Amino acid sequence: MVPGRKMATLHRSMRTALLQRLLHGLALMGALLVLSLAHHALAQEKKTLVILEVQGGNKQLQQAMTNALRDKYTLITPAQWAAAAKKLKVTGQATEDVALVASELKVDAVITGKGKQDKGGGGWKLNIAARQGTTGKPVGKIIIDLKSQKIEPANITQVEQEIPDAVAKAI
Questions:
Q1: Which has fewest Cβ within 10 Å: 36, 95, 114, 120?
Q2: Whole-structure pTM over 0.85, yes or no?
Q3: What's the DSSP call for residue 4?
Q4: Which residues, including other chains, have CB under 8 Å from residue 101's CB and lie 6 or more apart?
């Protein structure tokens, strides 16, 4: 073998190895860039909602809804809602009132609810509505028959399971 030829073969194999490493590094950087952009896009698309206090509800019910929704949505506190409502001189939860405050806070959905006795003194019901932020209209509804005025743990579990679908309808 000619000594110069051995050296040329060695340089070629080194260049090939170096080129392969460079291409591998570029591919890795490209993959990281794509993942970073995808993560950023998902963070941008996270919708905002507020869970207002359920009239006749309890802390466990509020916490269950918060737990069911906090990972998928950005949550606005009821205190932030109340401050915006006060600023706008809104005191109720009528459709137009909800839409007005939701617009101010740029909220995509609003959860409202009430535990109430059926007309005629019959049983009790828990009504929860996921409302569209833009219109204030209740779209995703949950209606649960209660044994009494008290909200039982089984009722809370049911709400926790159903609330994500109700919110999805409103957004």
A1: 120
A2: no
A3: H
A4: 81, 84, 85, 88, 90, 107, 110
